[in-house]
Amino acid sequence: MSQFWSPFVRSLVPYTPGEQPKLTKLTKLNTNENPYGPSPKALAAMQAAVNDDLRLYPDPNCDQLKNAVADYYGLERAQVFVGNSSDEVLAHAFCAFFQHDKPLLFPDITYSFYPVYCGLYGIESKIIPLDENFAINLSDYEQQNSGIIFPNPNAPTGCLLPLEAIEALLRKNTDTVVLVDEAYIDFGGESAVKLINQYPNLLVVQTLSKSRSLAGLRVGAAMGNPVLIEGLERVKNSFNSYPLDRVALAGASAAFADKDYFEDSCAKVIATREVLTQGLEALGFEVLPSAANFVFARHAHHDASELALQLRQEGIIVRHFKQARIEQFLRISVGTDEEINLLLNELQKHV
Ligand SMILES: *Cc1c(COP(=O)(O)O)cnc(C)c1O
């Protein structure tokens, strides 16, 4: 029946999301969800938003949420864009900024949605290898491009770039958009948002899925110069003018306003990450330095896919990528202390 498809749909290679098993009672350490729930204030705001007003369309400009993000970062509302997940915000950014006649630059080991969006929008890309320590070396990106995109910290490695390295790139690369995907920045990094007033070509994208524990709500944001934001609005209003529903707007705004809860849950995740890292190292794993809510680890004597299978048989799910250079790594999300103990105890039986 695929004769009904538009011809280019045949050439698409869609993203493969991490598994969301239907079974309960699993220890789910495979998709970097937050082990702690969303802010109780966000939950209350969403419950209050479930009322007769749902017969009405939501605010297409999402002003309440843009104000909450702007307040959090000390920005103007015109410097903020919001969308239905950061994946959607990224898709709009690829469409708005990267369709020029030079290649988009991104790392060989990175968020695997980037090549998918290149396929969707017909964007040529040039893949820049990570260095021998699995780190991004931004001086490798000083070359002709239609744009540059990388996560900071990178996924799935967890490795963080200091803000000075990003600023050094921005000083040299002034003619195309540099997009920093900060899905994990709240777990130990310094946000590049503070550079957007100086660098009109810097776009910072964030999500409420990880550090604000709202993966199920689907909300993301971008911060940058008002001209970049206007470019995103043009694409968004050519695609879906009401991407965020009333419940999501209420919940996401309240989550951004509840700074105390947010900081507390990030601190707990960071503390458990250190326990996880030390526990894995004690079992003979090499663990890349992580500033995210996951670690990337390999064992010198045990095959990663076998370890993943053995864990799975005990109901513990971690992520394994069958990709050159990283096929011996496991990506393990930081769970609660109890979940991490369970994982370390199980691994101990196999290594
Ligand atoms: C999780 C993740 C996203 C997507 O976040 P959503 O808002 O849930 O779509 C984007 N970029 C990276 C690097 C991620 O890990």
Please supply descriptive tags for the structure shown above.
about 350 residues, alpha/beta, 7-stranded mixed sheet, 3-stranded antiparallel sheet, 10 helices, about 15% strand, globular, binds pyridoxal-5'-phosphate
How does this model look, in words?
This protein is of the alpha/beta class and 351 residues long. It is built from 10 helices and 12 strands. It has helices at residues 40-49, 63-73, 86-97, 113-121, 163-172, 226-236, 246-257, 259-282, 304-313, 337-348, and strands at residues 27-29, 80-83, 104-107, 125-128, 147-151, 178-181, 202-207, 220-224, 285-287, 294-299, 316-318, 329-333. The strands form 3 sheets. The protein has a 7-stranded mixed beta sheet, sandwiched between helices. β5 (147-151), α5 and β6 (178-181) form a beta-alpha-beta unit. α3 packs across α6 (226-236). The radius of gyration is 20 Å and the shape is globular. The N and C termini lie far apart (49 Å). Residues 85-87, 111, 151, 155, 181, 183, 207, 209, 215, 220 line the site of pyridoxal-5'-phosphate.
How do you describe this structure in short?
This protein is α/β, with parallel strands linked by helices and 351 residues long. The protein has helices at 40-49, 63-73, 86-97, 113-121, 163-172, 226-236, 246-257, 259-282, 304-313, 337-348, and strands at residues 27-29, 80-83, 104-107, 125-128, 147-151, 178-181, 202-207, 220-224, 285-287, 294-299, 316-318, 329-333.
